[in-house]
Design a protein that fits this description.
mainly alpha; two-stranded antiparallel sheet; 3% strand; globular; 66% helix; two-stranded antiparallel ribbon
Length: 499
């Protein structure tokens, strides 16, 4: 009893099967919808932005190996997610899985941690979308003032020096940029929030259209790009180490931690478990299918980009565009299409991130760990509208004020921590409750979850200490809320206490 109280699998399955129609989410998603939701969340900032940065700074052409390492870490975590999602078809993702296996306290830590992934993730991608949108508007002759398209705050872990004079260009910590607010990012979040309040089915249709569009564009880049690859750009495939984590195998590992952000999103499929028509069958298909498709596309895209342009030239906000330009006039027609694909693709990532976070709040409120208002369902649209609107407001403010680099690191470390806990949860449940019905079984337990823990933990270890400090501060805030509110309002703990 108390902070280690667990929610039994039987109770969770009963909740999924027996809720009244007035207070439950609408089951409207099939395997195809769930797979496209996953692809919609995964293909975005990673493939359109981070690939070039990671290649130029850390891994060189061997960024392909970084994607493979990250992909394996996500595969092992995805197999663990698939087992839980098929067993426990409840909104809440890793939060619910933690409650069932490791107890209420760990569940709270995961739920609080996932805010970093989904809420801050939506803000991060919205900032990236704003950059592409502003550039696109400039291309068609519409100038948007820099003061209204950039964050008013900048952040640097260490002081940025001028290479020639060693003068301090930017001090360590926060500094002002002179901008007012990133308005396009805020408007995008407002639009996606409105769509999510209206309904999950409508949101899924919009996402399906965007996914078809951006996969088509990615395939065009891969197909036509391979025709103009200069193989000399792939040599040396693993550039020699130049110190620290730059190039060599150490650079490949750091690159894996950086491009891990590109895979974030497949686990968002599991937050929609309560809206799946046949979750026992469809959830594993959605999670593993979207992950497999995106991994193949990422590897091919990385090969094309580093083959078209030298990796040192890709450290720009729009590396795919730069790579295609290197092919010359023959692929000039593709350049404009890439910008449209990036704008649409990043918008769908924001949509799925904003969809996932309210459903975690919804589950936590039903368990009493958050106030009841967080669990309210719209009587007509059957969506968690209060938490969707709240998430949208907070995400819009964050996207309007803060830079993408600071937000991206927080998202990565928060997600990696959730993956580690989910992998550990599968091992715990296999040994404590081996006879539970598992429509999908993670293969090779405990090897697969242990490998997931090691790879995701290793990527966490390669992130800067400043990112760890922010994670610790965030967790301390969460613990204060838990011990001052959630613990005393927990429905399960009170039920056991009265019993």
């Amino acid at each position: 009893m108390g902070i280690w109280t667990k929610k039994s699998i039987a109770v969770l399955q009963a909740e999924a099967a027996g809720e009244s129609t007035e207070h439950t989410l609408r089951r409207a998603l099939g395997a195809l919808n769930l797979t496209t939701l996953g692809i919609g969340a995964i293909i975005g900032a990673g493939i359109f932005v981070l690939t070039g940065t990671a290649a130029a700074e850390w891994a060189g052409p061997a960024i392909v190996l970084s994607f493979i390492i990250s992909g394996f870490g996500c595969l092992f975590a995805g197999l663990c997610y698939a087992e839980f999602a098929s067993m426990i078809p409840i909104a809440g993702s890793a939060y619910t899985y933690g409650y069932a296996t490791l107890g209420e306290f760990v569940a709270w830590i995961i739920g609080w941690d996932l805010i970093l992934e989904y809420l801050f993730g939506a803000s991060t991608v919205a900032v990236g979308w704003s950059g592409y949108f502003t550039a696109f508007m400039e291309q068609i002759g519409i100038h948007m003032p820099a003061a209204w398209t950039n964050a008013p705050l900048a952040y640097h872990d260490t002081a940025v020096l001028d290479k020639a004079t060693q003068a301090v260009l930017h001090p360590a910590g926060f500094s002002q940029t002179g901008a007012i607010v990133n308005l396009p990012a805020m408007v995008l979040i407002a639009l996606m929030t409105t769509l999510l309040v209206i309904g999950i089915k409508e949101s899924a249709r919009f996402n399906n259209f965007i996914v078809i569009l951006k996969i088509t564009i990615v395939l065009l880049v891969i197909g036509f790009g391979f025709m103009y690859v200069n193989q000399a750009n792939w040599h040396p495939f693993i550039p020699p180490n130049t110190g620290g984590w730059h190039y060599g195998w150490k650079g490949i590992v750091r690159g894996a931690a950086v491009v891990f952000f590109a895979y974030i999103g497949f686990d968002a499929v599991s937050t929609a478990a309560q809206e799946a028509k046949n979750p026992q069958r469809d959830m594993p298909i959605g999670i593993l299918g979207s992950l497999a498709i995106c991994t193949v596309l990422y590897i091919l895209m990385a090969l094309v980009m580093t083959g078209l342009a030298n990796y040192t030239e890709l450290d720009v906000p729009h590396p795919v565009f730069v790579a295609i330009e290197k092919a010359g006039p023959a692929l000039a027609w593709l350049a404009g299409i890439i910008n449209i694909g990036a704008i649409a693709g990043l918008a769908s990532v924001v949509l799925v991130m904003l969809m996932a976070q309210p459903r975690i709040f919804y589950s936590m409120a039903r368990d009493g760990l958050l106030p009841p208002v967080f669990g309210k369902i719209h009587p007509r649209f059957k969506t968690p509208y209060i938490t969707t609107i709240l998430t949208g407001i907070v995400a819009a403010v964050v996207a309007g004020l803060f830079p993408i680099g600071l937000l991206g690191e927080l998202v990565s470390i928060g997600t990696l921590l959730a993956f580690v806990i989910v992998c550990g949860g599968v091992i715990v449940l296999r040994y404590k409750s081996p006879n539970l019905a598992r429509p999908f079984r993670t293969p090779l337990v405990p090897l697969v979850p242990i490998l997931g823990i090691l790879i995701c933990g290793g990527m966490m270890g390669s992130l800067p200490w400043a990112t760890w400090e922010r994670l610790i501060v965030w967790m301390i805030i969460g613990l204060v809320i838990y011990f001052f509110y959630s613990r005393s309002h927990s429905k399960l703990a009170r039920a056991e206490g009265s019993a």
